């Protein structure tokens, strides 16, 4: 089946793309997703307590305000319902191809189209938009013996709701954003909870509250009121980037975090175990009011020794201690710097994106990649954020994508990609901006790839990123057809 535009992923990025492309007159499109519903990350992560750490008014599309948020910070079910509503409200449902996992995509230079092999059939498309998202593929730890464990093992992003944790001995590996949300929820039910912590996290208070009926009525009947609140939150949250760009500023926030830790954890030894020893923001800063208190309960042990192996009935740490368990929950994050989708996408000359990114992910403006015509990424390299909503980044990228497609239409060109020089200059500029930021402070984090380079986070303010993507730059691109034959010669070589 031939289509004009193929979108991979039906989360915020994919749905946003379908909506904005249709609004711009690009209606011949389909959205492919391996799941059975929209939502992406918010469909897959259903663990107890799953919620967003960005205010609701900002963690939503600017063109689709939602006056009915129940809390200032929303939980997973409400966010997924919002995305379902967007799919219905903007007429995207007919464009969805659910249970269609992308298995391979190949650029056909002769035809100027992408050949797509999906679990639901084969398609060709002039344009491929990858909105798979960085938090879509769970990362499993390579601990010896994991496959020999006699009990139940699952990742937090693949929660086993059919597995009752009541009265069980549960081992939790990882202390990231997911674990700090589900640990307080499961702690009261389990017999024993053993938390294996590699590095303690910086945690700030979660200042969430219920949105009053009066506020909801105002947002419903006075749309300008909600836009005003969103604008105010935007300015405050974007200003918070200063602490990441200039690490000394975060010392104030660090004192707030440590004061909360002293108040919530009275026992000196446990408090020392939970005290971070690195610059705040070097790893992801988490928000919670109940995580530390949950770790003080009598049925909880916090283990900071490394795990040497997993036995059939528990975990063995480097000090030789055996920790009994009948259930292991992996809060071990995702493949962020090595996304599996990269091995499935093959550009000019059959080269895979994984090969192109062997030395680290790179993309011009975080959106397009040299050697991969008509391929656009949403939340590509260096577009993640540590201080505010990534939906803002998605919308900035979508404006760029629409402008690029309009350029193709206006010039009669059939394909476009950034020049290697433009991509290199952009990457070098990002790397220079990264110097002196908190992410280069020396701690190991999922922001860094195997070479120690930060390929995930944007080293600046959202306002700056949006400004840099405001205008499509034809001079930074090669095109096929139209006025530029450079790419046709490259394909022929």
Structural key phrases:
493 residues, alpha/beta, FAD/NAD(P)-binding domain, 15 helices
What report would you give on this structure?
The protein is an alpha/beta fold. It is built from 15 helices and 20 strands. It has helices at residues 12-23, 41-44, 76-89, 179-186, 213-221, 223-239, 242-245, 250-264, 268-273, 291-295, 353-356, 390-411, 420-434, 462-468, 486-492; strands at 2-8, 29-33, 96-98, 102-108, 113-118, 121-130, 152-155, 169-173, 192-196, 203-204, 286-287, 300-303, 307-311, 314-317, 322-324, 327-330, 345-346, 375-377, 413-418, 477-481. Strand 4 and strand 5 (113-118) form a beta hairpin. The longest helix has 22 residues, at 390-411. It is globular, with a radius of gyration of 23 Å. It starts with a strand and ends with a helix. Mean pLDDT is 95; it is low at 484-493.
CATH level-four homologous superfamily name of the largest domain: FAD/NAD(P)-binding domain
Number of helices: 15
Low-confidence stretches: 484-493
Main sheet? 8 strands, mixed
**What's the CATH first level of the largest domain?**
Alpha Beta
The radius of gyration computed from the alpha-carbon positions, rounded to a whole number of angstroms, is 23 Å
Q: How many strand elements?
A: 20
Quick one: overall form?
globular
Strand content: 15-25%
Q: Would you give the CATH topology of the largest domain?
A: FAD/NAD(P)-binding domain
């Amino acid at each position: 089946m031939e289509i004009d535009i193929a979108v991979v992923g039906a989360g915020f990025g994919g749905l946003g793309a379908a909506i904005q492309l249709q609004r711009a007159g690009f209606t011949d499109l389909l959205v492919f997703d391996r799941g059975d519903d929209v939502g992406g990350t918010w469909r897959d992560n259903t663990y107890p307590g799953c919620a967003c750490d960005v205010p609701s008014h900002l963690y939503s599309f600017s063109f689709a305000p939602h006056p009915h948020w129940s809390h200032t910070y929303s939980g997973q079910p409400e966010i997924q319902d919002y995305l379902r509503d967007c799919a219905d409200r903007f007429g995207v449902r007919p464009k969805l191809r659910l249970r269609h996992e992308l298995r391979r995509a190949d650029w056909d230079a002769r035809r100027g189209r992408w050949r797509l092999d999906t679990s639901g059939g084969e398609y060709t498309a002039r344009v491929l938009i990858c909105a798979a998202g960085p938090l879509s593929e769970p990362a499993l730890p390579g601990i010896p013996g994991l496959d020999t464990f006699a009990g139940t093992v699952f990742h937090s992003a693949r929660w086993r709701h059919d597995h009752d944790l009541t009265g069980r001995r549960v081992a939790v590996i990882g202390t990231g954003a997911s674990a700090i949300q589900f640990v307080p929820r499961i702690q009261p039910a389990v017999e024993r909870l053993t938390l294996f912590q590699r590095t303690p996290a910086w945690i700030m208070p979660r200042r969430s509250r219920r949105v009053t009926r009066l506020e909801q009525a105002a947002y419903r009947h006075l749309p300008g009121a909600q836009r005003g609140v969103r604008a105010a939150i935007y300015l405050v949250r974007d200003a918070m980037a200063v602490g990441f760009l200039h690490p000394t500023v975060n010392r104030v926030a660090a004192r707030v975090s440590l004061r909360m830790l002293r108040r919530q954890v009275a026992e000196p030894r446990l408090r020392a175990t939970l005290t971070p020893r690195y610059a705040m923001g070097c790893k992801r800063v988490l928000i919670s009011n109940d995580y530390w208190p949950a770790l003080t309960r009598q049925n909880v042990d916090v283990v900071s020794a490394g795990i040497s192996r997993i036995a059939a009935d528990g975990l063995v740490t480097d000090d030789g201690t055996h920790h009994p368990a009948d259930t292991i929950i992996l809060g071990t994050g995702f493949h962020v710097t090595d996304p599996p989708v990269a091995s499935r996408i093959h550009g000019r000359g059959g080269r895979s994106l994984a090969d192109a990114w062997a030395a680290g992910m790179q993309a011009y403006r975080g959106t397009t990649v040299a050697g991969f015509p008509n391929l656009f990424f949403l939340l590509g390299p260096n577009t993640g954020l540590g201080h505010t909503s990534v939906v803002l980044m998605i919308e900035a990228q979508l404006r760029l994508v629409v402008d690029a497609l309009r350029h193709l239409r206006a010039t009669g060109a059939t394909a476009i990609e950034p020049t290697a020089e433009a991509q290199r200059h952009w990457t070098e500029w990002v790397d220079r901006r990264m110097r002196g930021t908190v992410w280069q402070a020396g701690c190991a984090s999922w922001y860094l790839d195997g070479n120690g380079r930060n390929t995930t986070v944007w080293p600046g303010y959202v306002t700056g990123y949006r400004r840099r993507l405001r205008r499509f730059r034809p001079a930074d691109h090669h095109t096929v057809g139209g006025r530029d034959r450079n790419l046709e010669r490259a394909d022929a070589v």
